[in-house]
Amino acid sequence: MRWVLPVLMATLVNAACTDGKTQPSPPIQVQNQSPAAAGLDPGSANFIMAGCHDFIARSGDLSTAYQRGLCVGKVEGVAVFATGVCYPPEATLGQMIRVVARYIDDRPARLHENFLVLAQDAMRAAWPCRR
User: Which CATH number fits domain 40-126: 1.10.890, 1.10.10, 3.30.60, 1.20.120?
Assistant: First the structure.
């Protein structure tokens, strides 16, 4: 149902912007990327990794905007709150997302697991705290 309003708005804007002489552009196609529709656990790496890959590729694909937000937010949360992670001060969020994505991509058998757990494992492996 979340796709109804964006499609309706796009149709109305499209109709309002035509002057009768030009062909209107087709309405925006919005894909339903809800976890339930995809049959995935919304906390799993299976669901969130598409957003991480799109963030890295800077694709701007609207169909994975939700997953991109989850990826960025969860990686940043792990960076701030996880214990045992001591990343260098010059590390960027983009670098952290690439580290997490590479770690998870190298372990396809674990994609069904919780993304936060895998992100924490990735960052601990890349930037362990030295005692």
Answer: 1.10.890
> Hey, is 26 helix, strand or coil?
coil
Q: How far apart are CA 100 and CA 92, in angstroms?
A: 13
| Burial class of residue 1 in the structure, from the number of CB atoms within 10 Å of its CB (0-12 exposed, 13-18 middle, 19+ buried) | exposed
Question: How far is residue 73's CA from residue 67's CA, in Å, rounded to a whole number?
Answer: 10
Q: At residue 52, what is the residue type?
A: C
pLDDT digits (tens, 9 = 90+) for 44-91: 999 999 999 999 998 877 877 889 999 999 999 999 998 899 999 999
pTM, entire model:
0.69
Domain chopping of the chain, boundaries: 1-30, 40-126
- Could you give the angle at which helices 65-81 and 45-57 cross, rounded to 10 degrees? 100
Tens digit of each residue's pLDDT (9 = 90 or more) over 14-55:
444 444 454 554 554 444 455 555 567 888 999 999 999 999
